[in-house]
Task: inverse folding
C-alpha cells in the first residue's frame, strides 16, 4: 500500500540554449510505501517495513517531450520488525523523452 504526491511549479519560461518555450520547474515529491500491511499472527505486533520520502528538485523541460531532472532524495525506512528507521539521502539525475 502506498502513494505519492508530486508537485511541479514552473519558475522560468523563456528561450534557454536555443530551445524556444523551455521551462524550468521547481519540483517536490512526497512518498509513502508500506510493504507489509497488518500484524504478525504469532505476536499480534504490527509488521514494519515502510518507507517515507521527501524529494525536492529542479527540472528543465527544453521541449514539451523532454525532461532533465535533478533531485535530492531523503528517506526514512524501517525494517520488518519495526526498528527505528534508517535515514538515507542522495542525489538522483533523470532524463526522460516521450515519443
Result:
Amino acid at each position: 500500500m502506498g502513494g505519492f504526491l508530486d508537485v511541479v511549479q514552473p519558475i522560468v519560461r523563456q528561450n534557454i540554449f536555443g530551445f524556444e518555450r523551455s521551462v524550468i520547474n521547481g519540483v517536490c515529491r512526497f512518498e509513502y510505501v508500506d510493504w507489509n500491511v497488518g500484524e504478525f499472527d504469532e505476536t499480534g505486533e504490527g509488521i514494519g517495513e515502510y518507507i517515507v520520502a521527501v524529494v525536492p528538485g529542479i527540472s528543465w523541460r527544453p521541449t514539451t517531450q523532454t525532461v532533465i531532472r535533478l533531485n535530492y532524495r531523503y528517506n526514512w525506512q524501517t525494517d520488518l520488525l519495526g526498528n527505528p528507521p534508517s535515514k538515507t539521502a542522495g542525489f538522483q539525475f533523470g532524463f526522460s523523452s516521450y515519443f
